[in-house]
Amino acid sequence: MMHKVSRRLMNMLLEPCYLSSRGFSCSINKLALANIPEFVKIVEVGPRDGLQNEKQIVPTHVKVRLIQMLVSSGLTVVEATSFVSPKWVPQLADAKDVMEAIRNMGGARFPVLTPNLKGFEAAVAAGAKEVAIFASASESFSKSNINCSIKDSLRRYRDVASAARKLSIPVRGYISCVVGCPTEGAVPPSQVAYVAKELYDMGCFDISLGDTIGVGTPGTVVPMLKEVIDVVPAEKLAVHFHDTYGQALSNILVSLQMGISTVDSSVSGLGGCPYAKGASGNVATEDVVYMLNGLGVKTNIDLKMLMLAGEFICKHLGRSSGSKTAVALSKVPAHASKL
């Protein structure tokens, strides 16, 4: 039988490193989990990556309200939308309107995805102050996702990076399929390192390594990160895990231990790649924040406020949250009140 969680229990669970009150110490945890950073930056991708695959068009005002609520929770980087062709991603056809609505919203950066120079120019015209480009470590996925080879995509992005540099606009780089591809299977770490180095050399300030179909485990993520860190500094890297096989938090933890301090996530676990069959949602931001709180790692994110944002968008989409933390904090087993 399930019961509403008590206010006292919820407050305890929402507090960073609440286990210290039960005889455990955050400092001891830190010794056991060496190299974990004191602060982790969360890049919220829900409004773009989380919604792009939704078949039902989400009204612009709902997207804008979601962004507002995410910023209110303390998130300082919220990926707002994408300037791709509406033909390919109809859900994001209102990119210009979204950017207009958040133009004067303070407290956060709002990067947007730009697939080519045309998309970059449209983003700049709409007021974008930061953009992102997306390559793949898999040749097959590159061709299905952006209709060109890896080398051709990198050539295209050099043009975008050059144009951005002239306008002093920061560019973030994404790499998809960093451990596995839906058609090729396992992806060699050397291939990921090659693409990462190319993006770094063209000026990307941050390179997000994405397990697009969620097949990675610590056993495959660690070798990939080792190879990438050999050519790109760890402080310039981020990780982006889908939770298809329930491995996302484990993969994030080992990434933190290897010096990564930027993590992509999506409120309520929204998302899934339209070009990767079977790819479930991104790891839920609520779950990432809860884990980091338990490790004593600062994020400056209010978990209660974050959960409200998740409730808002899930209610609109007519589904329950994909965040285990959000679900557990709304209903817990009766014996949990004895914790």
Kindly describe this structure.
This protein is α/β, with parallel strands linked by helices and 339 residues long. It is 42% helix and 14% strand. The strands form three sheets. Strands 3-2-12-11-10-7-6-5-4 form a nine-stranded parallel β-sheet. β10 (206-211), α10 (218-229) and β11 form a beta-alpha-beta unit. α4 runs antiparallel to α13, α10 packs parallel to α11 and α12 packs antiparallel against α13. The relative contact order is 0.17. Residues 1-5, 19-24 and 334-339 have low confidence and may be disordered.
Instruction: Give the SSE string.
Output: EHHEHHEEHEHEHHEEEHEHEHEHHHE
Mass-distribution shape: globular
Tally of individual helices: 14
pLDDT averaged residue by residue: 89
Please report the distance between the alpha carbons of the first and last residues. 17 Å
Describe the sheet with the most strands: 9 strands, parallel
Q: How are the strands of the biggest sheet laid out side by side?
A: 3-2-12-11-10-7-6-5-4
> Structural class of the secondary elements?
alpha/beta
Strand content: 5-15%
Low-confidence stretches: 1-5, 19-24, 334-339
- Secondary structure: helix percent: 40-55%
Radius of gyration: 19 Å
Report the count of strand segments: 13
